[in-house]
Amino acid sequence: MAETVEKKTIDLIIERQKEPDSEPYNETFSISYRPNMNIISALMAIRENPINKDGEKTVPVQWEMSCLEEVCGICSMMINDVPRQACSTLVDDLEQPIKIAPMRTFPVMRDLIIDRESMFDSLKQVKAWIPIDGTYDIGPGPRMNENKRLMAYELSKCFTCGVCLEACPNVNDKNDFMGPFVFPQVRLKNVHPTGEMNRDERVEAFMEDGGLQGCSNSQNCVQVCPKGIPITTSIAAVNRSATIQSFKSFFGSDNY
User: What is the domain extent for residue 99?
Assistant: First the structure.
């Protein structure tokens, strides 16, 4: 008589929310384990068979995904109390049961779906772009110093996933701090040969309410950044630029 092999299962405790103004609640699901599963595949298994651990049929869990390779940032969520990307977080690396919740720094739309619009509003506030007139060909752009290029490449890896805001103790409903991700973006645009022409304007915008003064340098952002972006060195660089800009504004001089 053949031996019956016990099938391995995974329990997931998911914080759910029906609407933006609804009260959150927890629902537990049990799914079959497969090797090399990530959180996205676990959520897809629930979607295929939306029955909770009590055997009750329920509404499938709502979440967002796109690239599935840690590029788009929309699958950011709290996984075992740590903000992470669901696409690159493997089930085998997590303690059981797995707790999944939305990142509460942002407005929750439904279940694990959040609204990250505030991040893009922050980028608008600090003018995090390179202004050029695209109506005609102005020829090739200026070449960058190799050391600057390597540094800029690291800064450009930011994909506005939002996990640094979730980890930062200064991003909350008691202040309007834009968050750690803005520092590398200001620095990135300021080291660009064309972008540096608007350097002062960019730094001054970041010196306003919600800007660099809101950072307490807790360095939680570096711990969770999935791309290992040098956020703390960017904080130091932007703070130095702000100090210089303050002297320039006070003395009315460009000799700094």
Answer: 9-114
Residue 17, Cβ neighbours under 10 Å: how many? 19
Q: Which of 114, 129, 144 is the last residue of a domain?
A: 114
* In a domain? residue 159: yes
CATH of the domain at 169: 1.10.1060.10
The strand ranges marked E within 3-130 are 9-16, 25-32, 76-79, 82-85, 98-101, 108-110, 113-114
How confident is the prediction along the chain (256 residues), in pLDDT tens digits per residue? 444 445 799 999 999 999 999 999 999 999 999 999 999 999 999 999 999 999 999 999 999 999 999 999 999 999 999 999 999 999 999 999 999 999 999 999 999 999 999 999 999 999 999 887 777 777 787 888 899 999 999 999 999 999 999 999 999 988 899 999 999 999 999 999 888 889 999 999 999 989 999 999 999 999 999 999 999 999 999 999 999 988 887 777 555 4
Helix, coil or strand: residue 108: strand
Single-letter residue type at 78: M
Residues 146 and 78 in one domain: no
| DSSP assignment of 125-160 | HTT-S----TTS---SPPPPPHHHHHHHHHHTT---
**109 and 147 part of one domain:** no
15/129 same-domain check: no
CB 132 within 8 A of CB 110: no
How many domains are there within the chain? Answer: 2
